[in-house]
């Protein structure tokens, strides 16, 4: 894997050089992990003008915790002395002593105070904005990254499938969410990809609903959204069910509508497709049925080392999909006081010659009565 991380740093180095910066300082943890294989707490990565000048600066020796990743063995590490201060400030000083005249930094991740401290240690060093260069490199995944996402999806499917086989009536949203997160770990996840959402009755279909002590009742819609973190890579799945009885007519109608929107979104995933066109494919079905105000604000987003990363599949998003980009497709409708439906899958954009979009989360989307 060392070659993979080295190649990623080369691509960043080339981009910085083209913009007039011989070096870059990466401080955002997910970006450090992408380029270095791991991100020990509070560490920063200095990418120099030559591969041998790359160095990971850490305030304490890396502890080898699984959650921090597995560091590139060929990457030089520098542990600051006790009380050595901020690794980012130390990295700026290191770049100055190496003769750099400019350093690209992640301004979107730095506080004003930290940026000022970095500037004060090397006043003659020009601090340029690296912007979201690393995030842009992360959008297209290699097959090893996709393999981790595939395993994360399998774990999430397993956890959800086991829950569906248990008795649900009378249990609280909070209890079900905790059980799902335990099952994720039991099946090999490093943890939950994000706080598990369980919504019942009037809470169902709400994006990002935080579980409460409301108990599952007969006739409820039950919406579950969960994801697994496997070796740092995070997937997402969401499903809606009916509890303990034959669905009411309005439930069937609403479910079929959201399912049609989700299918349209999935089928529009292709290299070259506009981000906003994917959103439009799903949204226009909900809008035509009179649910424009009740629909979720975006149809999907990228996943990877973070659960919500670029691209954003929203009405105003600019850009086009590439092959090997994993995204969610997650339209939903929530009717205040009644509940709603959300259906959420993680897929990988593939060329039509390769079979089209690859579905990673395979739990049935049939409207089940549990």
UniProtKB/TrEMBL annotation:
One of its GO terms (molecular function) is aminopeptidase activity. Residues 148-350 form the Peptidase M24 domain. Keywords: Aminopeptidase, Hydrolase, Protease. The keyword Metal-binding does not apply. Residues 192-213 are annotated as: Disordered. Residues 8-140 form the Creatinase N-terminal domain. Pfam families: Creatinase_N, Peptidase_M24. It comes from the Bacteria. This is Xaa-Pro aminopeptidase.
């Amino acid at each position: 894997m060392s070659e993979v991380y080295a190649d990623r740093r080369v691509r960043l180095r080339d981009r910085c050089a083209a913009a007039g910066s011989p070096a870059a300082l990466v401080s955002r943890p997910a970006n450090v992990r992408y380029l270095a294989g791991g991100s020990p707490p509070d560490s920063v990565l200095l990418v120099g003008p030559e591969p041998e000048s790359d160095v990971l600066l850490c305030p304490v020796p890396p502890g080898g915790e699984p959650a921090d990743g597995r560091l590139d063995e060929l990457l030089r590490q520098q542990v600051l002395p006790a009380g050595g201060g901020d690794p980012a400030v130390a990295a700026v000083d290191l770049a100055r002593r190496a003769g750099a005249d400019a350093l690209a930094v992640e301004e979107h991740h730095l506080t004003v105070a930290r940026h000022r401290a970095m500037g004060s240690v090397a006043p003659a060093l020009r601090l340029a904005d690296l912007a979201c260069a690393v995030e842009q490199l992360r959008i297209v995944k290699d097959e090893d990254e996709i393999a981790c996402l595939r395993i994360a999806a399998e774990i999430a499917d397993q956890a959800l499938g086991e829950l569906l086989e248990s008795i649900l009536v009378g249990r609280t949203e909070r209890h079900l969410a905790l059980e799902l997160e335990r099952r994720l770990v039991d099946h090999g996840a490093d943890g939950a990809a994000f706080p598990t959402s369980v919504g019942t009755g009037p809470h169902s279909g709400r994006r990002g609903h935080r579980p409460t002590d409301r108990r599952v009742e007969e006739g409820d819609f039950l919406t579950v959204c969960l994801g697994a973190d496997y070796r740092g890579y995070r997937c997402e799945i969401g499903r809606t069910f009916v509890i303990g009885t034959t669905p009411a007519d309005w439930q069937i109608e609403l479910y079929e509508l959201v399912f049609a929107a989700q299918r349209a979104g999935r089928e529009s995933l292709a290299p070259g497709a506009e981000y906003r066109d994917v959103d439009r494919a799903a949204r226009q079905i909900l809008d035509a049925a009179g649910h424009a105000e009740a629909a979720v604000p975006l149809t999907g987003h990228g996943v990877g080392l973070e659960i919500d990363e670029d691209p954003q599949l929203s009405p105003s998003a600019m850009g086009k999909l590439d092959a090997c980009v994993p995204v969610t497709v997650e339209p939903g409708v929530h009717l205040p006081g009644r509940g709603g439906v959300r259906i959420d899958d993680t897929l990988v954009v593939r060329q039509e010659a390769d079979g089209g979009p690859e579905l990673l989360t395979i739990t049935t989307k049939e409207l089940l009565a549990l």
